[in-house]
Amino acid sequence: MKDDRPTVEQRGLFFEEFDLDVRYLHRPGRTATEADNVMFTTMTMNTQGLHLDAAWAATQPFGERLMNSMWTLSTMVGSSVAQLTQGTIVANLGFAEVTFPHPLHHGDTLYSETVVTSKRLSSSRPGQGIITLTHTGRNQYKDVVGTAVRTVMVWCKEARP
């Protein structure tokens, strides 16, 4: 049976579609669990007691284990992919100005958002553009738990493979 319905494929944005005047909210949020923390921390060979040792962490300034900040960063960026770069990214070029101004705790929900701070066509790669994104993660109380400036290279619409 032939299906003649129009097809819509979920994808990120092409260069031309990124808007400097928009704040992109990435939903749903992601509730951080103890299992996430232990798995991510051990998977990345991070032996920091602040993430793994409840008794020791209880003696530290926050009084409990904290979520691994690299989990926070990865989840902030990961939550943006479907909306911004799924299938349209050429390369992740780098990160700058990564901060964690407030800790993320087990049970907190991370909500991420992104603003585009600059965009330009690539001077060396025709059909591709360079986008600078500022990602911000907030907990359920709206406390900023992470920020990162990320530069990506994306396809222009007419040049996509």
UniProtKB/TrEMBL annotation:
<dbReference type="InterPro" id="IPR052342">
    <property type="entry name" value="MCH/BMMD"/>
</dbReference>
<protein>
    <submittedName>
        <fullName>Dehydratase</fullName>
    </submittedName>
</protein>
<comment type="similarity">
    <text>Belongs to the enoyl-CoA hydratase/isomerase family.</text>
</comment>
<dbReference type="Pfam" id="PF01575">
    <property type="entry name" value="MaoC_dehydratas"/>
</dbReference>
<dbReference type="InterPro" id="IPR029069">
    <property type="entry name" value="HotDog_dom_sf"/>
</dbReference>
<dbReference type="InterPro" id="IPR002539">
    <property type="entry name" value="MaoC-like_dom"/>
</dbReference>
<feature type="domain" description="MaoC-like">
    <location>
        <begin position="23"/>
        <end position="135"/>
    </location>
</feature>
